[in-house]
């Protein structure tokens, strides 16, 4: 099944009179080219959110019961933003915040990285040692599990990782922070060059709680969504010449691209060939995994101490 990690509704503003968008991609020989394509023919991966080891009726549950509703609820918020109105209602504002988080976490590269790291960080006991371990605890009331710990069954761990992704998208502190930031729309219609987007379209600073912390997302060829922790930074950024804003955003959004970049036409080909894949992609996995690894190491130290039971 096709799972669109770049939702079709998001790409619609870049669609031309022919019903297609300009798609830039790298051929197997390494050359970056462009082609007019329908939105449904790009930005997807087969069975990206498929749940392994479940009943056939449930294997696409993550897509149908979680990702699709996120996109459906985000449409209204996006439409308000295209009309230069920041959503004021709690539900609509929450829906857009959830959509932004999902766009950072739902790409094939991020899903694969999450699965791998989740597997490395979540150990368990081999089933054949479960009974022995329980008996040892009854006799000595203390035992060490070193040598018994191995990764979970691959089907179980992959399924758990997929559910964990939904937990991070619904993470209350992150959603609360996004909703409380200063939101604005920057109109770039006054300049000839148009905004582009890509398969990694969210521009995210290293620290969302920094003075200049912000995230940005092109929502059309002439509209840029910006959210900032400090209103002074937002005003400063939005006061820059529109031509500079378009140039900076296009460089970043194309630089973050891993497979696709998108535009209204093919005039950006030279720019895409120069910039595509040159920037690190946005991620929230780094800080999370560092914290998880630190906790794992700390737990291991405690567990292997002389008083560990």
Structure description:
By secondary structure, this protein is of the alpha+beta class. The protein contains 11 helices and 12 strands. It has helices at 8-11, 61-82, 90-105, 108-121, 127-140, 154-169, 172-180, 231-238, 242-255, 269-275, 285-303, and strands at residues 2-4, 21-26, 32-37, 44-46, 123-125, 149-151, 182-187, 197-198, 203-204, 214-220, 223-228, 260-263. It has a 4-stranded antiparallel β-sheet with strand order 3-2-12-8, covered by helices on one side. A hairpin with a 2-residue loop joins strand 10 (214-220) and strand 11. The longest helix has 22 residues, at 61-82. The model is unreliable at 124-137, 139-152 and 300-309 (pLDDT under 50).
**Measured distance between first and last alpha carbons:** 47 Å
Order of helices and strands: EHEEEHHHEHEHHEEEEEHHEHH
Query: Main sheet?
Result: 4 strands, antiparallel
The outline comes out as globular
Q: From the alpha-carbon coordinates, what is the Rg to the nearest angstrom?
A: 23 Å
Strand share of the residues?
15-25%
What is the total tally of β strands? 12
Q: What is the count of helical runs?
A: 11
What's the rounded overall pLDDT mean?
82
Task: Pick out the low-confidence regions.
Answer: 124-137, 139-152, 300-309
Structural class given helices, strands, pairing? alpha+beta
Enumerate the strands of the largest sheet in spatial order, edge to edge or round the barrel. Answer: 3-2-12-8
Q: Helix share of residues?
A: 40-55%
Looking at this protein, list some descriptive labels.
309 residues; alpha+beta
